[in-house]
Design a protein that fits this description.
heterodimer; A: 358 residues; alpha+beta; Rossmann fold; OB fold (Dihydrolipoamide Acetyltransferase, E2P); 2 domains; six-stranded mixed β-sheet; four-stranded antiparallel β-sheet; 9 helices; 25% helix; B: 289 residues; mainly alpha; MetI-like fold; two-stranded antiparallel ribbon; globular; membrane (chain B)
Chain lengths: 358, 289
């Protein structure tokens, strides 16, 4: 177990990156605290796997350093870093039995036979494959194979960190839930530093203490699931977290007041007069349909998802989503919306502004 | 559902029937026909029954040729398969040099058999051949026309030169199909180079390697042109492999009956061997899996 520090890190797959666009991973400083469970969340191609491979040492960064507990490991091999990693698609040694697969990392490190047998048994119990230990890995289903990969990742007790690269993509939904819960309890029990890459917000929010959201090669926000929901630091976070995502509306901001197409929206903090691309963001949960006050909308569709209704509307031609409680009647007179002032964020060039107390 | 009956549809298979008849059935039946008859020329044939088969089975000449053939195929498989895998493992995996290697490796495969034979025939000559002359100058006794060992060495090296590429290309295709994640996982598991080969590369190559073994076995078992051009089956009968012997018998001596019986048995042997190979290898693979 170790604290992992990324110092001035960046990576480009090109030999001579000319501009910032050439970097798959843009310059980054971050400390992964010892024993925390992180989720690395972002859409495909945002650089999260690149970051993971740099941490595990499979990829050498173009610039910057990686420190494990203040020891520079930038040049160290994967084996020396003592990391475990589980990949998106199951990697099993086909010709070996399940038992040999699980024992492989331990045997390669010269552990005693008794210790290997004991660990293999414990891990097999955890992934629920005790009765299949003597089977060949080749004939197993994809999710059984992925369970073996997970098991191989966890079989060593002394690893510095456990990295997961979208490990549950190929697993059945009910098994996903179970394995995620097991990973979480494993984390509680042994306190490994865990980094879990995913593009599934539910997976990220349920697994991690802290979620790191990446967008276009950059870390845009690190925070608890609550932070990400309440105060998304970037419009991408607002859009990516939540279902449906945050509404982002172009506006002009003057002090404590935002103006959308001539209609006033009040804010609880002062923002001065920002320039650039100014937008306000408000989550669908904090938009209220009214019969008179507020901004005019046209309702296009109502989706009843059981716990609540999602109203798809348009506001001056742009999409606006509204979450309405199950009991609320949506009448023909509901033609306007108001926003909860405290929940409206102001974004300049996609970044959230803190503002000043008004 | 109503089926319409139209017997004219049979005409649609006629072209194929004709093609197969003229390309396979009739020639084969001619051989079968020869194998049970005797002739003294003038297109007069006499019924001989299974005599030729019995004679061939008793013939030391055929058993010797079969022995040489098995030895030849065995040796070239033992060399070409590991060598091909070794070459594939050491080829650049991508980029310009990878394509370069692939092209260079394919070159021997594109050369016609008798040209390969001629190349090595000249290459090995003691008077003008680079190889023969050099060996001779170094004081190594080498003369494939007189020395049995030299003759065998020449045709084996020639076959290795000609066909190792095929094994290497197949093995390389197998290697290329392995996702990077396997190598990364192996690194993380601290697997040794040998373990990576044994548990990742070899199992993933097994399928194509089996095809390579089968192809190389069958091709080498039927080899004719190259050794014939180099040694003509000599010195003596030292490199007279099955096909060479067969041609000698059929065209050289015009013993059509025995030659026909010989070729039918030859055919059976190849079929049986290929079947045994295939069965053994697929069961091996199943047991591995």
């Amino acid at each position: 177990m170790a604290k992992i520090t990324l110092d001035n890190l960046a990576h480009s797959y090109l030999a001579k990156p000319a501009s910032e666009d050439d970097f798959a991973l843009k310059q980054l400083d971050h400390v992964w605290a010892d024993g925390e469970a992180y989720a690395l969340l972002g859409s495909s191609g945002c650089g999260k796997s690149t970051l993971l491979n740099i941490i595990s040492g499979l990829l050498h960064p173009s610039q910057g350093r990686i420190l494990f507990d203040d020891k520079d490991v930038t040049a160290a091999t994967t084996a020396d870093r003592n990391i475990a990693q589980v990949f998106q698609f199951p990697v099993v040694y086909d010709t070996m039995t399940v038992r040999d697969n699980l024992a492989f990392p331990l045997r390669n490190r010269g552990e005693s036979a008794a210790y290997v047998a004991e660990r293999v048994q414990a891990i097999a119990r955890m992934i629920g494959m005790e009765d299949q230990l003597s089977k060949r890995a080749r004939g197993l289903t994809a999710d059984a194979k992925q369970k073996i990969s997970l098991g191989r990742g966890m079989v060593r007790e002394d690893v510095n960190a456990l990295l997961f690269d979208e490990p549950l993509t190929v697993i059945d939904p009910h098994m996903k839930w179970e394995l995620r819960t097991q990973l979480k309890s494993l984390h509680h029990e042994f306190g490994h530093t865990m980094i879990y890459v995913t593009h599934d917000q539910t997976e990220a929010l349920t697994f991690a203490d802290k979620v790191v959201v990446m967008y276009d090669g950059r870390v845009v926000q690190i925070g608890t699931p609550e932070d990400l929901f309440e105060t998304p630091a970037h419009t991408f976070v607002g859009y990516f977290i939540g279902s449906p995502g945050m509404n982002v509306i172009p506006a002009e901001v003057q002090g404590t007041r935002a103006v959308v197409q001539g209609h006033d929206v009040s804010l609880t903090r002062g923002f001065g007069t920002p320039s650039g691309k100014v937008e306000i963001g408000v989550r669908p949960e904090f938009v209220t349909l009214t019969a008179g006050a507020g901004l005019p909308v046209t309702i296009r569709r109502v989706e009843d998802v059981g716990r609540h209704k999602i109203v798809r509307a348009s506001l001056f031609g742009a999409d606006l989503n509204i979450v309405v409680g199950e009991g609320v009647e949506i009448g023909a007179d509901m033609t306007n919306v108001t926003f909860a002032p405290a929940k409206v964020g102001v974004y300049v060039d996609d970044w959230r502004q803190t503002g000043e107390a008004a | 559902m109503n089926k319409t009956t139209n017997q004219k549809a049979w005409f649609l298979v006629l072209p194929v029937l004709l093609l197969v008849a003229f390309s396979a059935v009739i020639p084969l039946m001619t051989v079968v026909n020869y194998s049970v008859q005797d002739t003294f020329g003038q297109n007069e044939f006499f019924w001989a029954g299974l005599e030729w088969f019995e004679e061939m089975l008793r013939s030391e000449r055929m058993w010797d040729a079969l022995g040489r053939q098995l030895l030849f195929s065995g040796i070239i498989l033992l060399i070409e398969i590991p060598l091909g895998v070794f070459v594939a493992l050491n080829m650049p995996k991508s980029g310009f040099w990878s394509s370069f290697c692939l092209v260079v490796m394919s070159l021997p495969l594109l050369i016609p058999w008798n040209v390969v034979g001629t190349i090595w025939q000249i290459f090995g000559r003691v008077d003008i051949g680079l190889l023969g002359y050099t060996l001779d100058a170094l004081g190594i006794s080498y003369n494939y026309t007189q020395d049995v060992f030299a003759a065998w060495a020449t045709i084996i090296v020639m076959d290795v030169w000609h066909w190792t590429s095929l094994v290497a290309l197949l093995a390389f295709a197998g290697l290329k199909s392995i996702p990077d994640a396997y190598y990364q996982a192996a690194k993380i598991d601290q697997a040794s180079r040998w373990a990576v080969f044994r548990y990742i590369e070899l199992p993933k190559m097994m399928g194509v390697l089996m095809i390579a073994i089968l192809l190389r076995f069958m091709d080498s078992f039927m080899i004719y042109t190259e050794p014939f051009v180099v040694t003509g089956g000599g010195p003596g009968n030292a490199t007279t492999l099955l096909s060479i012997d067969l041609v000698k018998m059929a065209l050289g001596q015009f013993d059509l009956g025995p030659a026909a019986a010989f070729s039918l048995m030859y055919n059976l042997v190849i079929l049986t061997m290929a079947y045994v190979f295939y069965t053994v290898m697929t069961t091996l693979e199943k047991r591995e899996g």
